[in-house]
Structures are given as C-alpha cells and as structure tokens.
Amino acid sequence: MDKKIYKNQKIDEEMFFYESESGLRVYLVPKKGYMKKHAVFATKYGSNDNKFIPIGKKEMIEVPEGIAHFLEHKLFEEPDENIFDQFSKFGASVNAYTNFNQTAYLFSCTDNFYESLELLIKFVQNPYFTDENVDKEKGIIAQEIKMYEDSPGWKVFFNCLTGMYHNHPVKIDIAGTVESIQKIDKETLYTCYNTFYHPKNMVLFLVGDISFDEVIKVVEKSEKKDIKNNIEEITRIYSEEPKEIKEKYIEENLVTSIPIFTIGFKDDDVGLDGKKLVKKEIATNILLDMLFGRSSKFYQELYNEGLVDSSFGGQYIGHKSYGHSIIAGQSYKPEIVLEKTNLYLENMRNKGLNKEDFERIKKKNIGSNIMGFNSIDFIANNFINYLFLDFSFIDYIDLYDSISFDDISNRFNNHYRKDNYTLSVVKPV
Q1: Largest Cα–Cα separation, the chain
Q2: What are the backbone dihedrals phi and psi of residue 111, each rounded to the nearest 5 degrees, phi first?
Q3: Which one of 6, 141, 230, 295 counts the least CB within 10 Å of its CB?
Q4: Whole-number Å distance between alpha carbons of 6 and 8
Q5: Catalytic pick from 65, 72, 137, 223?
Q6: What is the enclosing helix (H) or strand (E) of 93?
Q7: Which H or E run includes 261?
C-alpha cells in the first residue's frame, strides 16, 4: 500500500494520499472525534467541456450543451432500487452538483460510512442509460431550465457572462437549453461518461474520523477491475476568446420587486494554473473586500444614499482559460451605482490603495480560513475545488500569508479598467 502523508504544521492539519491501480486519486483529511463524515467523488468534467477528443479516438467531437448536467442526473438511475433509498437505509444524505468545470457526487453521515462509501463508488462507476430513461429525463430537465430562465438572479448573472464572453462556453447555462438537451442520446452520454469518468480524471476526497486503511480496502474492493490506467490526458478544445468584452450593457425584464444588477470585470490574465492561479484568486478577492466589502467607505456611501442594500458584494471566479470579478446587488438606480463605481476606481488609481485596509482584511480572512478547518463541509468543498486547480488546500493559509501589498496593487491596476466590464440589469416587468 503506497500511502503518503502531507502535514502542515502552521494549521496542525494532515492529509493522507493514495493512488489506486486504476489511477484514482484518494485523499483523506482526518478529523478525530468529529461525528460527521463526508465523502466527495468528483470528476474534472463540467458544462465547459463540450468540445473534446474522446478516449481512444483521434477526432474532436462537439456534444450538446448541458450534457454534463444531464449525465449527473442520469447516474442516479438504477434498473432496480432507487439510489436515494439505498443511502437512506444507511442513514446517509446523498447529493450531486455540476458546475462549469466539475461534477461531484457526495454524501454525509454519522454511521455506516464505509457501506455508504462502497455504494457511492459503485453507483458512479455503473451508468445505466436507455433510450426510454434518457427521453424521460429530457422533460424533467426542460422544466428545470424553464424555472431558471424565470429566476432574476440566475438570468442577471448569465446575461453578464454573455456580455463579457464572445466564444468561451462559460457563458452557456450549465443545464443547456430546452433545444440543446433534445439532441442528447444514450450513445453520446456513454461517450462522455467513458471519457470523463475514467478514474484518472477523478478524485475521491474524504474528511472526518475515518480510517484510511479501511477506505483503501473499500476502494480496492469497489472500483472496476477492467479499466486501463495507461490513457493520455483528455484533450479539451475551447474556441479562442478575445480579450475584449462583447457587450457593455445588457438589460432584461422579469418579475422582480427591485432591479438587480451584476457588474462583471473580465480577466485577460489567463493561462495560469496551480499556485499562480490560486494566488491571483486570493489577491483579487482581498481587493474586492477592500474596495466593496461591508467595512469599505464606498459601501457605506452607497448604502447611506439608498443606492444599495446588504445584498451588495463581490467575488472573483477564475480558472485556467477564463476569469472574472463579479460585483452584484439590487438597486433602484443600477446605472448610478456603475457610474459611482467607475469614479471610485479611478480615484483609487490616482491616490493608491490603503495598506492598512489590506493588512486588516488579510488577517481577518486568514483567521476565517483557519476557523474553517473546524468545519467538515468547508474542508470538503474547498479541497475538491482546489485539487482540480492542481493545488492542495492544506497549503492555502501559507499561500494566503505570502500575498503582499504589491501583489494587490499590481492586480488592481491590471484588472479593474474602464474597457473590460459589462453591466447586466434585470428590471421589473
């Protein structure tokens, strides 16, 4: 058994690692004395991955939008017993999600952990697609898509992505469209499954008071034995994306009591991964907190003038091929909020950022993340996200601590410009 242990003395945490014969990477963060246990079985496959070369093929294919999300739904389909019922018998709560870059299947429990883990591995590795159950699912997901199309919060966000991006698939709704899912069939689902659900493209992450030796026994017992480990890395194809935004302003009318808005700043500093990508993410989120957080003078000014409420805030989202800062909220005068934001950013460019604000927010966020390691859910969610960015979350605090004021200042000048933002607004009907 080739088991490795990584330790971080600063936060007094350790992580176990093991790679199975099939190429599956297995990680455990042990939390002695914790009642709750959590497992996530995830694949590096999301809604962005619509153009790729299937395993064993040489030619690129393009699959219907929304197929990764559709596949997630269908993996819960079994010819006999319901998967949810099986987990319930063990007292475990099971769920799944698909985002732009990954699909994850997860459960949490206090008892019967190893039995639940075996069930998780087996059902994810045993797809059951038929013409009948695929057609049935189209109606279910079409209703889900229509529900999101009527959601002001969902629409204002995706409209902003549509305004920022010309070609990148991140602008496409994760569930696809009612039209695109009609093109999905069982053969295409199996093609996507066989390519992206290969163990070498997947990660199993566990956290709780769990025996790693027992975990490895379950993995060796449960994973398929006929999978070849000598496959090459999956070739994913993304259309070339211009640095410029596509549209400056997008407006839509939906049922909402107050107009809502999203300002998106498109990132043209792309192509990074691993530590460099995560360092950029940290720096940008510190910046957003300094500029637009609850303790900022700008937030207080907007709030006191009645231009925003407590929903106002910002977040940076970045991956190797794309990235953007999102500043969002609700306001009766979103155009005035944008105008004041631009004036504020220009003023900050002229006078410079406040180093004391940087130090205070950096310390606050380091403390919050250290506290986060007391939460099973916090650990599980973050570890999976960062593992697919080729970074171990156990080193996150060390990387956070290395961020300097110069890193923040350089990022501010390069990212928040007058030529790289989109304003998306949803107003009442």
Answers
A1: 67
A2: -125, 170
A3: 230
A4: 7
A5: 72
A6: strand 93-98
A7: strand 260-266
pLDDT at 304: 97
C-alpha Rg value of the chain to the nearest Å: 23
How far, in Å, CA of 284 to CA of 99, rounded? 21
Residue 206's contacts (CB-CB under 8 Å, 6 or more residues apart) are 26, 27, 28, 29, 37, 38, 39, 40, 117, 215
Q: Identify whether 72 is a catalytic site residue.
A: yes
CA–CA distance from 198 to each of 23, 31, 184, 384 (Å)? 8, 29, 21, 17
Cβ-based neighbour number of residue 98 at 10 Å: 22
- Residue pLDDT, tens place only, 325-384: 999 999 999 999 999 999 999 999 999 999 999 999 999 999 999 999 999 999 999 999
Q: What amino acid is encoded at 171 in this protein?
A: K
Using CA atoms, how far residue 109 sits from 35, 84, 121, 207, 234, in Å, is 8, 13, 16, 11, 34
Q: Check whether 1 has a pLDDT greater than 70.
A: no
Question: Regarding beta strands 421-428 and 249-254, do their DSSP bridges make them parallel or antiparallel, or are they unpaired?
Answer: parallel
- For 174, residues 6+ apart whose C-beta sits below 8 A from its C-beta are 46, 47, 66, 68, 69, 98, 99, 100
Q: Which DSSP letter does residue 336 get?
A: H
Tokens of 287: 């910046």
> How distant, in Å, are the alpha carbons of 38, 362, 395, 417 from that of 278?
24, 15, 11, 22
Instruction: Give yes or no for a contact between 144 and 159, defined as CB atoms under 8 angstroms apart.
Output: no
Give me the phi and psi of 202, to 5 degrees please. Answer: -125, 165
Task: State the Cα angle at 377 between 262 and 172, rounded to 5°.
Answer: 35
Q: Where are the alpha helices (DSSP H) in 59-166?
A: 67-74, 83-89, 113-124, 131-149, 152-164
DSSP run (H or E) holding 206: strand 202-208
Phi then psi dihedrals of residue 245, to 5 deg: -75, 160
> What does the alpha-carbon distance between residue 114 and residue 98 come to, in Å, rounded to a whole number?
25
